[in-house]
Amino acid sequence: MSGPSKFVPRHPALKWFEARLPIIGLMYDSFVSYPTPRNLNFLWTFGAILSFLLIIQIVTGVVLVMHYTPNVDLAFNSVEHLMRDVNYGWLLRYLHSNGAAMFFFAVYIHMFRGMYYGSYKEPREVLWIIGVIIYLLMMATGFLGYVLPWGQMSYWAATVITNLFSAIPIFGETIVTWLWGGYSVGNPTLTRFFSLHYLLPFVIVAFVVLHVWALHVVGQNNPAGVEPKSDQDTVPFTPYATLKDLFWFVAFMLIYMWFTFYVPNYLGHADNYIPANPSVTPAHIVPEWYYLPFYAILRAIPDKLMGVIALFASIIVLAFLPWLDTSKVKSGRYRPLFKVFFWIFVADCLLLGWLGAKPAEGGYLIATRILTAWYFLHFIVVLPVIGLMEKPLPLPESITADALAKHGAKKKVIAATVAALAMLVGLSTSTRTAQAAGETPKPPQLTWSFSGPFGTFDRAQLQRGFQVYKEVCAACHGLSLLSFRNLAEPGGPGFTTAQAAAVAAEAKVKDGPNDQGEMFERPGRLADRFPSPYPNAQAAAFAFNGAAPPDLSVIAKARTYERGFPTFVFDIFTQYQEAGVDYITALLTGYEDTPADFKLPDGSNYNKYFPGHAIAMPPPLADGVVTYADGSPQTTAQYAKDVSAFLMWAAEPHLEARKRLGFQVMIFLLVLTGLMYFTYEKVWHDVKHPPEETPGQGTKTTRA
């Protein structure tokens, strides 16, 4: 992007166009002939990965906007309508939500790589600062997007985060009122958050262009931290860097697609499948995982204003890294003391993230304050001091010498990573042991036909589950997001169209107004949604002494339980996403006599799997209450499992299509990854294994 262009057009039309708008030359100099250090490792591909992910987020976001309604009464249902009724709408939503998580995962690797190899040092200070600005814009965009589904965690996250501005002296309350568009989080808040969430990605694109521009002006850093001295130290961007970036991007897509197709809700929060309710505060308000370290820092300080200052300072301090690090050596590879403290800092960030999801009390709070103090000490004390006192290792003579050398740093990196994980497991074990008394027992993990990568619903079980819902649950609980036609669609209970129409006709649907201006009831049609048993939530709450029965449309995704470490890590690979149905089944069968040492509130029932054990709903099932025609056991346990499976389908009607398409995508990506790898190795072979000059024997070529 700087200096005279190396592009020489040959065609007269190209010469004419290039003389007036040299955009082709700009692209050629930036992405074809641009010199790239030959010793870059795979960590340098995350910049390209982030660029691809940004494109995916913008494309999916633009399509999602076409079906989203920024209204507090309609936002939640509009998202579910997209997931259920729009062709491949579930795919777009899961690509976008998991893409946000992958975006932050990649950017954290990108940032830690820059910190380890000193990519913020002279002459790349402006490049680094622009990167910090992009990160701030990403955090703002991600937060605004998290609010849009208007679930419980969305609403309360918006309430908590916007309330932080009230800590600002004098103008705080005014700023909060302006952000809300009123005196509480409501429709104006959602509308402006939606507008900003749509706008900010394009602002990010503008800063990414500046980031790439700055990169091409000063050149890329490299693992050795030395500048290129000759043409032998670099290779053209295309095909070398292009193929390397494409190979690692395709490999990264395997991870991305695994989450999208097989565990799409793993990185989210179950409470966000509960419609926002300002009158019910979640037990623990937790942001997305990529905000957790900063959320922990915020809660570590008892004073609200100081907590907000610490929160913003923890991010802004990154922009001052070029001046806080006093060492003249860029790469951490040649800084033995820095390397130790760097991995301690990484462990500190991981532990802060883990603590950010825990209650701010007891040992958790003490640990959070210690780690918060170390976070700031790393920047303010550790980096300036070790830069002055440590003795660096000898630097390589050139990038070429470094590229051909064999480094033993990988073992040290692995050892440091294992040490960090050991710290995480140790702290996890100690704190969980202290809080083990009085915990709600975990539901037993059951076997389901729809679990695993090739799992499908048992049609007979879904039909039995629908019968249990219809005869037992429908009197109190609605399925307002499910249409009667869904019963006859592929992947569902297997009803014929005539059977689904008959089920619809039995229902009474309120419609109107008619010619007289009055509402009336009519038999249901296939296009109608299941009617709720009560006209509104207030009527339902009044009928049950203030405890309104929840709608069951997404209950299988809105309920979960703590899996614990390391089980929740294994869940990624085993594709365990049945926590909701395991919990529902356990809840329906978990009613017991009240223990002598437990005080049960009036009007409640004791259930060992319900949090707090006091549940307003009486036992809904009993042996023999539903007559099965297929000879299945007519027991409470069988009823509970059947209706739970039906509710899983109600929450994920496209589950089978998702897994089927996921298998095809994964096979395609595996083959493409293999092809990209062999192409990458072939193109890079002569760079990795150049001819060597052997004394007394002339020139020979070394083969791998």
TrEMBL record:
Domain Cytochrome c: 460-592
Highest rank taxon of the organism: Bacteria
Organism of derivation: Rhodoplanes serenus
Cytochrome b/b6 C-terminal region profile domain location: 227-397
Cofactor(s) the protein needs: heme c; heme b
GO biological process: respiratory electron transport chain
Transmembrane segments: 42-69, 90-111, 126-148, 155-178, 198-219, 246-263, 305-324, 336-357, 363-386, 661-680
Purpose of the protein: Component of the ubiquinol-cytochrome c reductase complex (complex III or cytochrome b-c1 complex), which is a respiratory chain that generates an electrochemical potential coupled to ATP synthesis.
Record's subunit section: The main subunits of complex b-c1 are: cytochrome b, cytochrome c1 and the Rieske protein.
Membrane topology of this protein: Multi-pass membrane protein
Cellular component terms per the entry's GO annotation: membrane
Binding site for heme c: 473, 476-477, 617
Keywords of the record: Electron transport, Heme, Iron, Membrane, Metal-binding, Respiratory chain, Transmembrane, Transmembrane helix, Transport
Domain called Cytochrome b/b6 N-terminal region profile: residue spans: 13-224
Cited Gene3D superfamilies: Cytochrome Bc1 Complex, Chain C, Cytochrome c-like domain, Cytochrome c1, transmembrane anchor, C-terminal
Family: Belongs to the cytochrome b family.
Gene Ontology terms for molecular function: heme binding; metal ion binding; oxidoreductase activity; quinol-cytochrome-c reductase activity
Free-text cofactor note: Binds 1 heme c group covalently per subunit. Binds 2 heme groups non-covalently.
Record protein name field: Cytochrome b
Source organism phylogeny: Bacteria, Pseudomonadati, Pseudomonadota, Alphaproteobacteria, Hyphomicrobiales
Subcellular location: Membrane
